[in-house]
Design brief:
By secondary structure, this protein is mainly α. The chain is 67% helix and 7% strand. Helix 5 packs across helix 7, helix 7 packs across helix 9 and helix 8 packs across helix 9.
């Protein structure tokens, strides 16, 4: 198997110059392939790879099917929309964020997303005592805590889906999932 890998690497090094590409240039070109457009803002393979690295899934991604890669792309689009909304609402300029000192971009984004989702999903998605007791009675859930967790999860999932759908409606989003090889 190792010999076969060496053979293909050797053949690639011979064929790429014939096509006017070096192996590094071919890899660079692949990183620039567009997977989606949000109002003209492109999401490339490189952006997608960076997104997957947030979750340490780059090796698992190589083995997942096209449908799973498509879901990951949709999640990246949602993340971009949420980050844009967080920026628009001033979460990146929040005093709490500034007081943390030196945070890298990923940490700043996580902070802003947490703040945005707490405001738009978590707080409004907290069930009242009456709603929990009603849910508990309707669904024969033994414990109040379990009923509360389940109801809050359902409410928050619906609020999140509605919020993202609202953000998607005001944008022109094009995806090129055929480029997800």
């Amino acid at each position: 198997m190792r010999l076969l890998t060496i053979y293909f690497a050797f053949m690639l090094s011979l064929l790429c110059p014939l096509a006017g590409l070096t192996p590094a240039a071919a890899e660079s070109d692949a990183a620039g392939v567009v997977l989606a457009n949000i109002d003209g803002d492109q999401i490339t393979v490189a952006d997608f790879d960076d997104y997957l690295k947030l979750f340490h899934q780059e090796s698992a991604f190589a083995q997942c099917d096209h449908e799973t890669r498509g879901r990951h792309l949709q999640n990246l689009i949602n993340r971009r929309l949420l980050l844009e909304e967080a920026q628009k609402l001033g979460y990146f300029a929040a005093p709490e964020l500034k007081s943390h000192g030196r945070l890298d971009q990923g940490e700043q984004e996580a902070f802003a997303l947490r703040k945005l989702l707490t405001e738009k999903v978590v707080k409004p998605g907290t069930a009242t005592r009456e709603a929990i007791e009603s849910y508990q009675a309707e669904h024969a859930v033994a414990s109040y805590a379990v009923a509360e967790t389940e109801l809050n999860h359902r409410l928050r999932r619906q609020l999140f889906d509605d919020f993202v759908l609202q953000l998607r409606k005001i944008k022109r989003i094009e995806t090129y999932e055929n480029n997800l090889k």
